[in-house]
Amino acid sequence: MSEAHASDVTRRDFLYIATGAAGAVAVGGIVWPLVSQMGPNEREKAAGAPVEIDISAVEPGMLITVIWRGKPYFVRHLTDEEVASATDAPEADFRDYASADSRISAAEGADPKWAIVGANCTHLGCVPTKIDTGLEGWICPCHGSKFDVTGRVMKGPAPTNLPLPPYSFASEEKLVIGLDKAGA
């Protein structure tokens, strides 16, 4: 009789351990999705992550639009004439004056020929369209605000210049929007 009792205890112990392990797996299967859903998803992680753009194919005079944090940004490769006209423009031509040098950038060791600005009008958030002639770079189709090639507001109801995003040049061919010039 004692042999049967020892065998029952061993089976009983095995059943307790197996039931406990199955219960732990079940609880883990329920808790894991609840905990993981509390963190940011891939789309939210990407929304704040820096965006790397290959600008090697963007010729002088060309404009590309990129999306960072769900908002459009203009990246314009300025021609020598556009840089000269922006630099020589008198302060009186602008509603919110800023020097052209502070708004035109370049990779280290390269000529400054890039305008990287927010693509939403500072009046009501419309997306301006590109103008191909003269100092004027963009016009807002909704209310007529005009911006120069560096995004400085020239006329119209827009109160301020197009914003400058944090960016840096990883090389002459790579622009990173989302990192400031110090790389932070």
Descriptors:
184 residues, alpha+beta, Rieske Iron-sulfur Protein, 4-stranded antiparallel beta sheet, 3-stranded antiparallel beta sheet, elongated
Report the total helices: 3
Q: Note the run of SSEs as H and E.
A: HHEEEHEEEEEEE
Helix content: 25-40%
Radius of gyration: 29 Å
State the CATH architecture of the largest domain. 3-layer Sandwich
Kindly report the CATH topology of the largest domain: Rieske Iron-sulfur Protein
Number of strands: 10
Major sheet summary line: 4 strands, antiparallel
What number of structural domains do the residues give?
2
Structural category is alpha+beta
What fraction of residues sit in β-strands? 15-25%
What separation lies between the terminal Cα atoms? Answer: 76 Å
Describe the structure.
The protein has two domains: 1-39; 44-177, Rieske [2Fe-2S] iron-sulphur domain (Rieske Iron-sulfur Protein), CATH 2.102.10.10. It has three helices and ten strands, in the order H-H-E-E-E-H-E-E-E-E-E-E-E. The strands form three sheets. A four-stranded antiparallel beta sheet has the order 5-6-7-8, with no helix packed on it. The mean pLDDT is 79. The chain has helices at 2-36, 42-48, 80-88, and strands at residues 51-54, 63-68, 71-77, 114-118, 129-130, 136-139, 146-148, 153-155, 167-169, 174-177. The chain is an alpha+beta fold and 184 residues long. The protein starts with a helix and ends in a 7-residue tail after the last strand. It is elongated.
